């Protein structure tokens, strides 16, 4: 038989695990949206508001396929940049940073985070803060390089593997 | 050449002159000795005064040094007192969090017991079945869907007391109220602020290990302060300011970079207003007998001690 959870609204922690967001991010999104319940208990409507107001998307459904002879980590970065290009996230249009990783397993997320940080340091990607969280975009003037790497798997991102 | 006889009168005069000169010489010698003596005394007095001046200058430097040490010691004690205060407040919250969890668990056990009543159990089963098929209702003919919804509404009404009780606010602990503080600081303290920090008396693990720990009173406290800081930033036109969560003396610190924002409004006043609003809203803090207050301190008091 079902327990009380059948009737109870969700905790911030439950929703955070479900949406793969830090609880503090959940709070910030709901405050920015003006829809944080005073008792901090969330229902399906709140979760939908978090998705919409926070711009949450799940980009991955497992690891990407690799080209012949391509290392999985490289395929991951290429797959990510391909999606960023296809979705048109070139400055000034930006995407929530955690969308880049949602849906991947923990190790792939870790590898991709390192790559994204390196791309930000290289000036290929640019990051900025908003009321609902960190956002990322392809930096102005770097979109052609990213497009080339996304299509051919060579070019701008080669340096990432030299840095480690 | 004949001898000129000595004139007794001249001799006498010359002798008198000689005697007068002797007396004058003696007087001069005596006076000079007096002057030398006075001069020596004056020189010794000057040397003594110089020694005193030197001693006073040394004393002045020592006093200044000591005073400087007192100021540093006062800062050290103040910093220590703030850390001890944070630690004590954190203990209060952790203790009351455990008590509140126990009270909630006891209430849930009682509610679970009520669910075992055969009549309620049957209704729960029906409710559960409805939840399972709810998403597919739209594909059913409207009359059939209406009948299902009507029936579910009856089941829901039967379960209303249980539903309401399971979503009720936390049970009150009926303990003596105790005050805990959130520390705020701005840097620089005067002029246009570049950074804001709020230090909460909750363990940093509520942020770092949130996925592995139970969402307790400390976590809810942290959510509420994060919400208050977010509202505060929105109110002063700094909604997009970067926020970082760091550890300070084992506690959670919310750090905000304001250097790229043009602030509109009084950050000090608004922060305390947000804490007042938080106090009114936070039912779980009230249930646990926690009275929240905000305190502005100098940023230097929150920095780690040098050396």
Quick recap of the structure?
With 164 residues, chain A is mainly alpha-helical. Chain A has helices spanning 12-19, 23-33, 44-54, 72-86, 106-121, 143-152, 158-163, and strands spanning 95-96, 125-130, 133-138.
Verbal overview:
The complex is a heterodimer of chains A (164) and B (307). Chain A is mainly alpha-helical and 164 residues long. Chain A folds into two domains: 9-54, no CATH class; 72-163, Arc Repressor Mutant, subunit A (Orthogonal Bundle), CATH 1.10.10. In chain A, 47% of the residues lie in helices and 9% in strands. Chain A is built from seven helices and three strands, in the order H-H-H-H-E-H-E-E-H-H. Chain A has a three-stranded antiparallel β-sheet with strand order 1-3-2. Chain A is elongated. The mean pLDDT of chain A is 87. Chain B has 307 residues and is α+β, with helices and mostly antiparallel strands. Chain B folds into two domains: 7-97 and 176-307, no CATH class; 116-166. In chain B, strands 3-4-2-1-5 form a five-stranded mixed β-sheet. In chain B, a hairpin with a 7-residue loop joins strand 1 and strand 2. In chain B, helix 2 packs across helix 3 and helix 5 (217-235) runs antiparallel to helix 6. The chains are: A mainly alpha (164), B alpha+beta (307). Chains A and B meet through helix 1, helix 2 and strand 2 of A and helix 1, helix 2, helix 3 and helix 5 of B.
């Amino acid at each position: 038989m079902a327990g009380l959870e059948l009737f109870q609204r969700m905790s911030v922690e439950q929703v955070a695990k479900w949406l793969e967001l830090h609880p503090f991010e959940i709070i910030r999104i709901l405050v920015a949206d003006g829809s944080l319940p005073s008792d901090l208990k969330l229902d399906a409507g709140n979760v939908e508001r978090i998705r919409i107001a926070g711009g949450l998307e799940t980009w991955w459904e497992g690891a990407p396929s690799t080209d012949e002879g391509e290392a999985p980590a490289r395929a991951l970065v290429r797959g990510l940049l391909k999606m960023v290009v296809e979705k048109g996230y070139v400055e000034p249009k930006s995407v929530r940073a955690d969308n880049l990783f949602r849906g991947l397993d923990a190790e792939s997320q870790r590898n991709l985070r390192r790559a994204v940080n390196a791309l930000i340091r290289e000036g290929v990607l640019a990051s900025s803060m908003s009321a609902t969280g960190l956002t990322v975009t392809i930096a102005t003037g770097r979109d052609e390089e990213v497009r080339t790497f996304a299509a051919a798997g060579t070019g701008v991102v080669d340096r990432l593997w030299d840095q480690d | 050449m004949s001898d000129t006889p000595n004139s007794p009168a001249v001799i006498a005069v010359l002798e008198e002159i000689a005697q007068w000169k002797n007396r004058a010489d003696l007087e001069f010698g005596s006076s000079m000795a007096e002057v030398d003596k006075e001069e020596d005394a004056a020189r010794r007095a000057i040397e003594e005064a110089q020694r005193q001046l030197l001693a006073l200058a040394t004393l002045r430097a020592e006093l200044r040094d000591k005073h400087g040490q007192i100021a540093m010691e006062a800062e050290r004690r103040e910093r220590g007192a703030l850390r001890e205060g944070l630690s004590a407040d954190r203990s209060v919250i952790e203790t009351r969090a455990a008590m509140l969890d126990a009270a909630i668990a006891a209430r849930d056990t009682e509610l679970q017991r009520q669910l075992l009543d055969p009549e309620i159990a049957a209704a729960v089963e029906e409710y559960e079945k409805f939840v399972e098929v709810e998403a597919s209702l739209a594909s059913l003919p409207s009359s059939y869907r209406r009948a299902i919804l009507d029936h579910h509404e009856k089941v829901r009404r039967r379960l209303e007391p249980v539903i309401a009780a399971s979503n009720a606010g936390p049970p009150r602990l009926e303990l003596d109220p105790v005050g805990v503080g959130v520390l705020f600081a701005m840097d620089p303290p005067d002029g246009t602020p570049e950074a804001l920090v709020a230090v909460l008396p909750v363990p940093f693990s509520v942020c770092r290990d949130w996925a592995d720990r139970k969402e307790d009173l400390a976590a809810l406290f942290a959510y509420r302060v994060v919400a208050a800081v977010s509202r505060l930033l929105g109110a002063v036109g700094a909604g997009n300011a970067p926020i970082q969560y760091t550890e300070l003396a084992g506690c959670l610190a919310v750090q905000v970079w304001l250097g790229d924002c043009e602030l509109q409004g009084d950050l000090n006043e608004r922060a305390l207003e947000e804490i007042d609003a938080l106090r009114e809203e936070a039912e779980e803090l009230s249930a646990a007998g926690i009275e929240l207050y905000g305190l502005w301190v100098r940023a230097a008091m929150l920095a780690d001690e040098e050396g």
